[in-house]
Amino acid sequence: MVKSKKPVFVGLGGNVGDVLSNMAKALDVLDSEPDVELVAVSPVYKTPPWGITDQDWFLNACAKFETSLEPQAFLDKCLEAEESLKRTRSKRWGPRTIDLDILLFGDVMVSYENLTIPHPRMQERQFVLEPLATLDDGLKIGGKSVGELLTGLGEPALEMEYEGTDWVAKFS
C-alpha cells in the first residue's frame, strides 16, 4: 500500500556563517530523503533578530515539501539536517547556523514535547508569514489566510535579500 503524501511547510533561518549555503544544503539533505520531495521555495528575507535582539540579523525563507513520513519522523530528518550543518542549541532564540521549523503538516495537528503543529507562534512573525505568502497567500492558519495575517501585522520589518527562488541551486 502506497502512503499518501502530505504538504509540509518549513521555515528556514540562520545568522551565523554562510547562511544561504546552509539553508540550501539543508533543503538538499531533506530532498534527498526517499519519502521527501522539495516542491517550492520562497525568496530569502533579511530580518531583525526576534527574542534576543543583540545579535546579527537573520536570513529567512520558507519551503514546501511533500512527504509520506509522519510528523515526528520528518522532524527527525530536519534535526539530522541541522546537525549535519553544525547547528548547536545553546540559547533559545540565539545565534545559529541553521534553523528548520515545521510550520504546517497538511491538516495534521499535533502537540508533543518536542513538536507542535501548526507552529504555535508563526502568526506573529513576519519573517515566517512573508515568505510563506509567496508560496501560498491563501493558505489558512487558524481560520485566516496568510495574507490576512500579514495585513494585521502592519508594515514589514524585513528586507528582501534574494528575490529569486533559484537560490537553492546557486548556493548548495
Describe the structure.
There is one protein chain. The protein is α+β, with helices and mostly antiparallel strands and 172 residues long. The protein has a single domain, classed as 7,8-Dihydro-6-hydroxymethylpterin-pyrophosphokinase HPPK (Alpha-Beta Plaits, 2-Layer Sandwich), CATH 3.30.70. Helices cover 30% and strands 28% of the residues. It contains five helices and ten strands. The strands form three sheets. Strands 1, 2, 3, 4, 5 and 10 form a six-stranded antiparallel sheet that branches. The protein has a two-stranded antiparallel ribbon with strand order 6-7. Strands 8-9 form a two-stranded antiparallel ribbon. The protein is globular, with a radius of gyration of 15 Å. The termini are far apart.
Number of β-strand runs: 10
Task: Count up the helices.
Answer: 5
Query: What's the rounded overall pLDDT mean?
Result: 89
Give, in order, the helices and strands: EHEEEHEEEHEEHEH
- CATH secondary-structure class: Alpha Beta
CATH architecture: 2-Layer Sandwich
* Radius of gyration over all CA atoms, rounded: 15 Å
Principal-axes shape call:
globular
Brief overview, please?
The chain has 172 residues and is an alpha+beta fold. The protein is 30% helix and 28% strand. The chain has one domain: Alpha-Beta Plaits (2-Layer Sandwich).
